[in-house]
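Worked problem 6 (solution included).
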Amino acid sequence: MPRHIYQLRVSLAEVSPPVWRRVQIPGGYTLDRVHRVFQHVFGWQDCHLHSFEIDGVSYGVPDPDGELVLRDELDHRLDAVAGKGSRFHYTYDFGDWWQHDVTVEDVFAADPDERYPLCLGGERSGPPEDVGGPYGYRRFLAALADRDDPEHSAMLGWVGRAFDPAAFDATRATTLARRMS
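Solution. The predicted structure is:
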């Protein structure tokens, strides 16, 4: 039986201009592996909690205190919870609340000559960790773009590296996703 590949479009909600990725992931990946692919193609560092909400069911890392009702993502494969045309949400960092809208664009047999996961494309750099969610990211971008902004220097120092919000490299995203997932 051939391996099935899921082509997903993953977009950050409430971020403009849009930040999105198109990835191909084996349907046999458990949701924890899907999470790791998303982390790397968006440039996140996996420092925070996350969850998936698919058809009204939440999946993630079980909460030992039982405060969050989540099904264990290690026990659920992508191909068991989603199909072609499915839409679901992936949320990263419950403080900043980065919600990602995910659409299963296609499901097809794996190309035996291709390695997966694969990032086919996307737009714009993923926001830095702990920037404050969509509102904080808008404020961060405004401060970076305006040398006269009172927070310009502080934001440059905080991010600690050159940050180009328009930059995205699908080849690098693929390399990181393959290495880390």
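Discussion: The domain at 4-125+167-180 is CATH 3.10.290.30 (Structural Genomics Hypothetical 15.5 Kd Protein In mrcA-pckA Intergenic Region; Chain A).
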